[in-house]
Amino acid sequence: MRKIILPTLALMIIGTGSAFASDRCNTPMKDWQPREALQKKLEDEGWKVKRIKLDDGCYEAYAIDEKGRKVEVYFDPKTFEPVKTKIKD
């Protein structure tokens, strides 16, 4: 029974670690697009951008989205794909 439980437990722990790693951006700085380009993209989509800063290798935007919600969104600096989103009340 132990022979089955330990490998299964190890796989669960490894899988959990990779889920946390996906929250961060690992793009080399030479491939980043300018912060101003992200701001323009978001404003063109109807967002009101309050601030964009760097955090953990990502662009972190504080804004009001097109639906009027306060949001904190982490974007990949190369693709501008959202990595993590927090909607604030």
The succession of helices and strands, N to C, reads HHEEEE
CATH architecture designation: Roll
Note the gap between the termini.
Answer: 48 Å
Radius of gyration: 18 Å
Number of strands: 4
What integer is the average pLDDT? 83
**Strand portion:** 25-35%
**Number of alpha- plus pi-helical segments:** 2
The major β-sheet equals:
4 strands, antiparallel
- Give me the side-by-side strand order of the main sheet: 1-2-3-4
Proportion of residues in helical segments = 25-40%
In CATH, the topology is named Nuclear Transport Factor 2, Chain: A
List the keywords.
alpha+beta; Nuclear Transport Factor 2, Chain: A; 4-stranded antiparallel β-sheet
Could you walk me through the main structural features you see in this protein, from its secondary elements to its overall organization?
With 89 residues, this protein is an alpha+beta fold. The chain has one domain: Roll (Nuclear Transport Factor 2, Chain: A). It is 34% helix and 31% strand. It contains two helices and four strands. The protein has a four-stranded antiparallel beta sheet, with helices on one face. Strand 2 and strand 3 form a beta hairpin. It is globular, with a radius of gyration of 18 Å. The relative contact order is 0.17. About 17% of the residues have low confidence.
Summed up, what is this model?
The protein has helices at residues 2-21, 35-44; strands spanning 48-55, 58-64, 70-75, 82-88.
Give the arrangement of secondary structure elements:
Layout: H1 2-21, H2 35-44, E1 48-55, E2 58-64, E3 70-75, E4 82-88
Antiparallel strand pairs: 1-2, 2-3, 3-4
